[in-house]
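Reviewers asked in the last cycle whether our approach scales beyond single polypeptides. To address this, we selected a multi-component target totalling 654 residues and predicted its structure end to end. The input consisted of the following lines:
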Amino acid sequence: MVAVAQHPHIKVYTLAEVDAVNGYIGNFSVTIRRRAKYVDWNKCTGCGTCETKCPNKKIPNEFDLGLGTRTAIHKVFAQSVPNKPVIDAQHCRMLQSGKCGVCTKVCPTQAIDFEDRDELVTEAVGAIVMATGFDQFDWASKYGEYGYGRFPDVISGLQFERLVNASGPTGGKIKRPSDHEIPNRVAFIKCVGSRDDTKGKSYCSRACCMYTAKHAMQVVDKIPGGEAYVFYMDVRTAGKGYEEFYERGVSKGVKYIRGRVSKIYPRGNRLVLKSEDTLLGRPIEVEVDLVVLATAMIPAAGSSEIAKRVGFSTDKDGFFQEAHPKLQPVETFTGGVFLAGACQGPKDIPDTVAQAGAAAVKVCGLFSKSELATQPMVSEVNAARCSGCGLCLPICPYQAIGMQTVRERGHGGTIERRIAAVNEVLCQGCGACVGACRPGALNLKGFTDEQLVAEVDALCL
Amino acid sequence: MKRVGVFVCDCGSNIAGTVDTGLVAEEAAKMPGVAFSTTYKYMCSDPGQELIRKAIAEQGLSQVVVASCSPRMHENTFRKAIAGAGLNPYLFEMVNIREQDSWVHSDREQATRKACDLIRMAVFKVLKNKPLQAGTIPVTRRALVIGGGIAGMQSALDIADAGYDVVLVEREATIGGKMVQLDKTFPTLDCSA
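The resulting structure, written as structure tokens, was:
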């Protein structure tokens, strides 16, 4: 992280989003919206005094997935990069009601700026790497048998990560959210939302088998006398060193039970899991203190919008569509736009790092040339036939057609008229305009009317 | 005088298992403008491409039709091959007799007839093909990375280490993405920050 922030060739915009992308491969113009931070990061030293003094302290912390609290002015987490705070306008008393301003008073460098507004910046780039990642499947809205999120001690794998993380809300001690007791028995349920056509997604999320193996091992390692039960459909350990890692967990005493949990309900201050052990062929019941769900990976919120803005397609699940599943796994159908990580499909860290490297090489390959060859199979306008109706303009999915004025001789003088003009770089050769052109003025090079009629003749004559 | 060469690929048994490629090549030889036709086990392979280049030189071919797989797979391969023999790469047509014929049909006779029809269409078309020239556009050597998680940071670092400028855009107030929420990561169990 720090390596990124300190790299002389990398300019980082945080709290920023891409508003618009214009142009084409080698020549994109990108509009970036820098959202208001209400803190002047040039003045701020990151001392953290404002955070300790902010009176609004009970805001559920998104970073800890609701397991901890934060203040209205806050750093995302203690080691955030850049290590500066922002004000969450929705929870800031000053910004909401105009009464407070404690942070202004305590800030030693006068860095607080309540007048801060969103700012638009434009950057010229030649290539774009999409790395928008994933979000967690919202299990609580779908899985009634797991309590629809009503039981505080049924948590997701990412929440478990926060509990076991030394910088998390419990300082790295695994504690139940309900009563902050250390759980003795922890159950893990895999494939929550993954491989489940009825409630979730048909695909396998690929990373869950392994992080569940890690979580279960941490329960056994960190909690004296701790027991871990993993309910699974299959254990998928396809990766270097993965099977050995899973075996290590089993040898440490993690109990794997092959079966789907059909119901979770409370009994006293514990939770009862009803399932079937499909290897024994009989129903079982396990009473535990904490349940951790391995939820599916889904495309990050806003993925489809950013895909539209940048101008490429998504697949049936909303992940970004690669140009070819085997041969072009990091390319999109849009020239100059590449994919890295879980935005293309669920994947774990090793695969993500490998794909990110591959995308970078594609970008560097593009940059190794001073000029790019365009593909010549593009639309062309026969000026003599074009009536200037403009029907082709809205048809073109690549905004490659505009209008131009031509001067020509006629009716005993020079006349001016408007005709269509194709931008040969933006044109992707789809041919949509050719079908829409009533006077037959548009032709796709390589697929001209003459060529297509010849093909029909070949069959009919 | 236009002289078309037709090259029919067996694709091992992918095509030849269902389509009588020898018969197809014989039929192709009778089509108007066709001066040469042949089959080969893997037309995309090095000897296959060499066969095309040699035929262009020896037979004085002016247009080329390759009947094999989907153009998505090998159109560029064959364009480069014929450009290597000195022909304009757009005086070329590719016929998909695998995905659109041998893989989706089981009746050998009908599949063979369909292959002949598809090739006849391409021969008629290629006779009307004109040489096309690619244009050039400049390149801005600067990359945008959208997302500052593992994937975004890694690709930004790799591009920047190669000496190119990178603009990294992250929605949250910190870079790091989901990674910074994690504790240890498998299989090495090292910290994730």
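The mean pLDDT of chain A is 95. We regard this as preliminary and will revisit it once experimental data from Aim 1 are available.
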